[in-house]
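Fig. S4 source data, part A: sequence.
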Amino acid sequence: MPKESEIFKQARKLIQKGIAVVAINRKTNKPDRKDWQHARISKQHVFKEFDVRNNLGVVLGEPSGNLVAVHLHASEACHLGSTFLPDTDMIVGRSGKASFRWFYRAELSAPRTFNDLKGRELITVKTTGSYAKVPPSVNHSKRRLLW
């Protein structure tokens, strides 16, 4: 479990970059607030909104300056990501799955999903109306997410 100060520190760092953050419930994997799409947490209110039981999420799309998340679901997509995706300083991974979520600034009106011929989800691009977990969050298997 991440130290208490790590959640607060990372949330404030993201807010400083113009990225809206949201507290994610570890059990449900959903935002704690019903109005999460419209709530804007300031650096001064991070302590009020988060606690050690939360994961940290970023609000995607317009609220975060058109931040989009490219989720690489299949192992083939993860292996090809570093070859075909543009460089970014926001890449999330974890032990066993090095780079599975890449963040960019781009205007995208709706999420997109790309499947293989069998219908298996390979890549999802999320934008406004979505959120994504970021470090120092942990996944459902209690593995810590890493930048």
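Fig. S4 source data, part B ends here. The CA atoms of residues 21 and 58 lie 4 Å apart.
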